[in-house]
Amino acid sequence: MKSISTLILVLVMFVTISTQSKAQSLLLDSLKISDTIKVKPVKIHSPTKATLFSTAVPGLGQAYNKKYWKIPIVYAGIGTSMYFAITNHNSFKKFKKALIQRTDGDILTIDEFEGVLSSSGIQANMDFHQRNRDLSYIVAGLFYVLNIVDAAVDAHLFDFPKNDNLSFNLQPNLELTSNNQLSKGFRLVINL
Predict the structure, then answer these.
(1) Per-domain residue ranges for the chain?
(2) CA 170 – CA 137 distance, rounded (Å)
(3) Continuous segment of H or E residues that includes residue 97
(4) What pTM value is reported for the model?
């Protein structure tokens, strides 16, 4: 029984290998147009791949698009926003702790702002740092989303032809209106 299963396995492997080699030779024959022209396979730049890369790791989509100069901008934006979010969160916790100590009703607990700030001053500082912390998180999220959008748009335009002849010109323009008045202005001329 083992010899039959081994024989079937060897036969299946032989058929698979021979089929693959025939398919490869047919593929190579189809790529050759003539002896003098060689067909170079076109590598497609995928916007989906760039989007997924930037979603997984910020800046990786820019690296995939070969726009390496954008990576420090992405990390500076996200990093700065996160720094301010963490700093404001720590200050918020400090003021919250002071407010809890001041309003707990125990005379033996003294907060670090005793004699410096009133309870309403501590509450105002706590609200200020909470608002700035939340705003910093929103800005960091916006930088993250902009990183993804930039990678997707840049990947879509990766194969766009870059032509030096593309130009925009403003030219003076005179026209007659429907009531025979002279209209002066500029006309935008686009040369492709």
Answers:
(1) 1-41, 47-156
(2) 44
(3) helix 71-103
(4) 0.63
